[in-house]
Design brief:
Oligomer: single chain
Order of helices and strands: EHEEHEHEHE
Largest sheet: 6 strands, parallel
Structural class: alpha/beta
Distance between the termini: 32 Å
Shape: globular
Number of strands: 6
Helix content: 25-40%
Strand content: 15-25%
Length: 173
């Protein structure tokens, strides 16, 4: 399959990209201009996103992907006033642009990552912070695409990640 991966500079995406390439899939990572590609599998194809949705749609059409693994997000446990635009652009706008590109290129499926922080005290929806609220807002936007464009969409909610190569301090690596 041809699979687009976002968040490719992160821990989970790097491991996922390696696994996908080992299985024979073609991986296309969408990155920002100043992204550090260190540690990302050398067989990965890169597209530098400059925020232009028309260019992103054309890129999707040119490769005709089977699916999208959307792992990119901006996580801030607490935000400041100056963080609001970045949270919205990273966690809502970018994903919406990906969905638009997906439906215009007839991409079959879209896997998103959410967070358990959307469910404080185990409620159906109770955001712990603005980050969690933006993750939920994107899911609401995605529902529009799922219901009107019939793209197969699912969100996997991650509690935490760990494993070999994780640079964060943990009790168990």
């Amino acid at each position: 399959m041809k699979i687009i991966v976002t968040g490719s500079t992160g821990f989970v995406a790097k491991a996922l990209i390696d696994s996908l390439i080992d299985q024979g899939h073609e991986v296309y990572a969408i990155i920002r201009e100043h992204s550090n590609k260190t540690g990302i599998n050398k067989k990965t194809n890169f597209f530098v996103d400059d925020g232009d949705t028309t260019k992103l749609v054309e890129y999707f059409k040119s490769i005709n992907p089977d699916g999208v693994l959307h792992l990119a997000s901006l996580f801030l446990a607490q935000h400041e006033e100056d963080d609001i635009d970045s949270l919205v652009v990273s966690n809502i706008t970018f994903g919406t642009r990906l969905l638009e590109s997906s439906v215009k290129s007839h991409t079959k499926w879209f896997i998103n990552t959410g967070t358990f922080w959307q469910h404080y005290d185990n409620n159906e929806y109770s955001p712990v912070n603005l980050y969690a609220a933006t993750k939920q807002a994107f899911q609401d936007v995605a529902r529009f695409y799922y219901e009107t464009q019939k793209i197969n969409f699912v969100t996997i909610k991650l509690n935490d990640t760990f494993g070999e190569g994780d640079t964060r301090k943990k009790i168990f690596n």
